[in-house]
Amino acid sequence: CEDCGKSLIGECKLHGPLIRAKDRVIPSRARLTLPHYLTLRVLELRAGNQQILGVFAKKVIQKRTQFGPYVGQLSTKLTCYDESRLVLQVLKDGGKYFLDTPNEDCGNWMMFVRLARNQEEQTLVAYQHCGEVYFTTVKPIEPHTELKVWYAADYAKFMEASAVFIKEESDVSPLLPVAKEPVDPWICSSCGSTFATFALLESHQCIHKDRV
């Protein structure tokens, strides 16, 4: 304590505690890459202050607007799985790799885009081009609308997933197939989570093996 000239363990009983000044919080790499006309919103707060985020438009975004490429770490197995986000893979040098984003400092804002649960809420398609993954809008996105993504037709085949049919104007790409009949989900025996394809279930089970 500089007032009484003593070295103390803990607070000075005579002059009280120090006034603590905290460093300014620096946004992560992923948050800093967010375009100015997009914003992140907290949709849910789970245990341990875990935030469930969504990406929303601040102004009208035109159809056929391309975002990307998606930034992630190439990995032979998925180390970070989130059931609300797409699992992404790419072909590199003849091998098939996951685009993994274990934390916000090794990805870009596209890691926050949630998957579309049906054709009405889908606004983006994900596809692979020259070993990179891009998202492109399939219709105009109005302000305050959340950006949600699903696989494009060819990429869905590559990912062994079903395609979501987007019913829009007559000039929608004919490559987008009509939705298939629903199939029985694949269920994880460890935690009970369900997945649309065996490939997604297999990737998810890698996490359980690593934890064991």
From TrEMBL:
Q: Which residues form the C2H2-type domain?
A: 186-212
What protein name is recorded for this chain? PRD15 protein
- One Pfam family this sequence matches: PRDM2_PR
Known InterPro entries for this protein? SET_dom, SET_dom_sf, Zinc_finger, Znf_C2H2_type
Identify the taxonomic lineage of the organism of origin.
Eukaryota, Metazoa, Chordata, Craniata, Vertebrata
One GO CC term, this protein:
nucleus
Q: A Gene Ontology biological process annotation?
A: regulation of gene expression
Highest taxon above the source species: Eukaryota
Q: Show where the SET domain sits.
A: 38-152
Q: Which UniProt keywords apply?
A: Metal-binding, Transcription, Transcription regulation, Zinc, Zinc-finger
Q: Which GO terms describe its molecular function?
A: zinc ion binding
